[in-house]
Automatic annotation (TrEMBL):
InterPro entries: GlpE_sulfurtransferase, Rhodanese-like_dom, Rhodanese-like_dom_sf. It comes from Lunatimonas lonarensis. Coiled coil: none annotated. This is Rhodanese domain-containing protein. PROSITE patterns: RHODANESE_3. Residues 49-138 form the Rhodanese domain.
Amino acid sequence: MKCSLFLVLFAGTVLLSEQSHGQSLAYRALLKAFYDADFPLVYPSDQEMLNQAVLLDTREMEEYRISHLPSAKWVGYDTFDLSVVDSISKDTPVVVYCSIGARSQEIGKRLMEAGFGKVYNLYGGIFHWVNEGYPVYNDQGATRKVHAYSRSWGVWVKNAEKVY
């Protein structure tokens, strides 16, 4: 009886905890493994901050063409060069993002090393963004498509049409 009660309480705790930030416990653990504890984050719900920042998409061009955040500028990852941000004041808030936030954090570190003072990583990347119901766009306008990077990473996209 005690074992059954414990299992019910444990399962309930896990199910409730999975709703934090609309994400599963597994996704949160994944992000925690990739993120540096001291790198600043911004959440999709912080729309005021996001509206004041320059959004930089650090994914590859193929991913960006499928969809990106509103007004995001593509800067890439493999081909990233600081010259693509020359026109951005180093005092301007900058939010970097990618699929989940790993590549963008690396680009964010490079921006900080170059003197940008207000650099934030979008928590959960574009995957979390669409899972929370926020819009993405391509050259034709709003879209439901998101480049899921690969089939194994695509399991984290829950609220969009996956493209590989």
